[in-house]
Amino acid sequence: RGSLPRPDETRIMVVANQKGGVGKTTTTVNLAASLALHGARVLVIDLDPQGNASTALGIDHHAKVPSIYDVLVENSTLSDVVQPVQDVEGLFCAPATIDLAGAEIELVSVVARESRLQRAINAYEQPLDYILIDCPPSLGLLTVNALVAGAEVVIPIQCEYYALEGLGQLLRNVELVRGHLNPRLHVSTILLTMYDGRTRLASQVAEEVRSHFGTEVLRTNIPRSVRISEAPSYGQTVLTYDPGSSGSLSYLEAAREIALRGVTSQHVLPQQEQRG
Ligand code: ADP
Ligand code: MG
């Protein structure tokens, strides 16, 4: 614990990709747990009505539990709904319940409907190093709320056929939100998930993504791993479910890269310039 620099202010990271099944939720909860194990204080906000991130963190999210729905649609505060995650010190979760499925429609008539989440985060007074927001597989009002609240977009890309398909739409939405609602917003991080080093396809996709995006792509890829996919059914991240597994180590390393990049401008870049 405590081995990595902490950011000067809370880094708000939106994990988005409107494709389902690419590893958004898996990445959100495992990166969050990794950052917490590295010594950071981290809040996961579950913005998917399925509540998969809440499940994976072992957080109760049956219909009566105070949830992010109450924050967005009613006037609850984040403090009313945030729960600590068992077994991982410094990790917290604002759960999603199935109510959230109606929020896209219910929010339409609400004042400042795009900035409900931003408002709630601004009012939250607990000290945090990171907030990770797990988005649903769509670009609707819930994802827009995340993009307005956040500064960094994290895009998990599954190493499969058509990996880049549909990304243009996400990137255009990021530009739109940046232009109209949130000038700080940018794509900071691309993470290759479900990487199978034995297949040619995976390395081809990785190469394509790296040539398309460049420095945003983390050096660490997340391997395809049964341990990663088993962990949620025990209400755990892979970090506590199987700490020594390749999946666990790769998320710790990805988190380390992210933490170090947060201080890139002050520490790492000048050194590299001298070398070059
Ligand atoms: P999304 O949130 O984008 O829909 P998920 O994170 O739920 O995607 O992942 C989709 C499925 O793939 C889940 O069943 C999950 O357990 C599995 N999965 C995700 N990452 C990995 C991985 N690295 N190795 C094996 N299975 C994975
Ligand atoms: Mg998900």
Automatic annotation (TrEMBL):
Signal peptide: none annotated. It comes from the Bacteria. Residues 11-186 form the AAA domain. May play a role in septum formation. Belongs to the ParA family. This is ParA family protein. The chain holds residues 77 to 352 of 358 of the full protein.
